[in-house]
Structures are given as structure tokens and as C-alpha cells.
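Design a sequence for this backbone.
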């Protein structure tokens, strides 16, 4: 991949990390005792940042500028003041309504080997990709899954032994599908990507990941 493609993505990641750091636990800055209300100066700064973002990038291939537009949930969760409980509930209900349940009623009947490939791949959605299909899920960036895979992130909880430990009741299977489709339905400010809702993964790919998590033959459950 050329430098041209990496630079804007890296900058976006850095900005996102900075924003995430600022809003953690609702504090405006580390050590601040209370989150101040957003004043006129904050709003002016925010407008300047948005302007800078919009004029610093250009649309190329499938990487269009709509990627910069934050929806209601993203705005609320990157605000210096964390959303209150009632707002979280309202946002989660709206995200829940976006979940598409399996069109054929089949939640877990995918191929766990395909799921393993999708879970480890972080490939996709760059401007050189001709089509947004066939992306990776990048799950290992945040989760341990197969205990033999040494390269696993810790932003999310370990999923080692997922179905062995949690079973395969209708409730857990449904929850897991929903979580994979739109993680913000269960925690509005979740760091987990909204794979189905965000058109990162297709329904078939999510079914393969479900098999990776639930199939007794999958290394996740060994
Ligand atoms: C950027 C980090 C990140 C990525 C990438 C990510 N997740 Fe998550 N995931 C999380 C976090 C954080 C949680 C904890 C709950 C929350 O805040 O949403 C979570 C929760 C979950 C849960 C629920 C676990 C439980 O015990 O309830 C499942 C299942 C899950 N992730 C599966 C996946 C799969 C499969 C992928 C890849 C398609 C993936 N995640 C990608 C961060 C991530």
C-alpha cells in the first residue's frame, strides 16, 4: 500500500485515540474533578477541528469523505461529557433497531474455518479495494480467541472458550449475533466496530464468525 493511503488513516486513528482518551470516564482531562459544560470556546474549537478534517482529506476509491461524518452515537460518545444513563438507553434502543437478524433463521451454521480467517484478517475498506465486500473482521486486534494464537489484543475481553463457558442457549446465541452486527446496541459507547450495521462484514461472514465462536470443533472451544 502506498504512503498516500496510510497517512490519512493513521492520522484519523491518532485523532480518535486522543478523543477517546479525553472522554474516558466522562472526564475532560486527566485529574479534572468534574467535566465542565461545553462553552463557546469549546464549540469554536470543535468547529475548527471539523473544518480541518474536512479540508485535509480527499475522497479516493471507496474511501469517501462520509467516513468523517459522526452519527448521533459517535457524537454523544466523543463529547467531553459522557451521555447520562437515559441517553445511553435511548441510543442503545435506536442501535438495537438496526440489527438484521439472520434472513434464513440460521445463526451459527457457518464454517468455523472461514470464521477463523475473517477473525484474524484486518484487511479491507482501503481506497485501493474495488469493493467493500470480503473485508476482514480484525477481531484479534482486540480479543483473544484461539488460545494457540499468540498475537491478540486486550481492548476487548478474552473470547477463549466462548461457547464452552457460556453455552449455546437461544439467549446467548441471539446476543452474540446482535453484538457482532451492532455492538453499540448493548453499550452505546462500545469500542467494538459495528460490523453488520457499518457494512464491514456481510451476513454470511458474520455466520462464519458465529461458527468460530460456537462450533464445538472450533479451536476457540478446545
Ligand atoms: C476495537 C476493538 C474491538 C474489535 C476490533 C472487536 N471487538 Fe468485540 N468487543 C470489544 C469490546 C471493548 C467488548 C466489550 C463490550 C463492549 O464494550 O462492547 C467486546 C465484546 C465482544 C463480545 C461480547 C463478549 C461478552 O462476553 O459479552 C463478542 C462476542 C465480541 N466482542 C466478538 C468480536 C468479534 C467476533 C470481532 C471481530 C469481528 C470483534 N469482537 C471485534 C472490542 C472489540
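Sequence:
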Amino acid at each position: 500500500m502506498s504512503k498516500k493511503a496510510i497517512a490519512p488513516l493513521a492520522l484519523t486513528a491518532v485523532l480518535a485515540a486522543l478523543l477517546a482518551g479525553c472522554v474516558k470516564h466522562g472526564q475532560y482531562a486527566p485529574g479534572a474533578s468534574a467535566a465542565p459544560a461545553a462553552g463557546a470556546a469549546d464549540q469554536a474549537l470543535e468547529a475548527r477541528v471539523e473544518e480541518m478534517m474536512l479540508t485535509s482529506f480527499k475522497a479516493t476509491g471507496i474511501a469517501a469523505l462520509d467516513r468523517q461524518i459522526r452519527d448521533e452515537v459517535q457524537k454523544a460518545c466523543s463529547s467531553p461529557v459522557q451521555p447520562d444513563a437515559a441517553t445511553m438507553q435511548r441510543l442503545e434502543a435506536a442501535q438495537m433497531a438496526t440489527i438484521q437478524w439472520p434472513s434464513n433463521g440460521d445463526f451459527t451454521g457457518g464454517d468455523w474455518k472461514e470464521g477463523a480467517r475473517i477473525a484474524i484478517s484486518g484487511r479491507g475498506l482501503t481506497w485501493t479495494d474495488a469493493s467493500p465486500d470480503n473485508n476482514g473482521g480484525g477481531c484479534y486486534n482486540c480479543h483473544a480467541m484461539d488460545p494457540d494464537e499468540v498475537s491478540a489484543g486486550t481492548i476487548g475481553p478474552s473470547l477463549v472458550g466462548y461457547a464452552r463457558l457460556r453455552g449455546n442457549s437461544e439467549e446467548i446465541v441471539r446476543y452474540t449475533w446482535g453484538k457482532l452486527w451492532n455492538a453499540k446496541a448493548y453499550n452505546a459507547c462500545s469500542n467494538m466496530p459495528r460490523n453488520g450495521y457499518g457494512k464491514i462484514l456481510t451476513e454470511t461472514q458474520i455466520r462464519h464468525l458465529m461458527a468460530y465462536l460456537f462450533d464445538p470443533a472450533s479451536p476457540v472451544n478446545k
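The chain has a mean pLDDT of 86.
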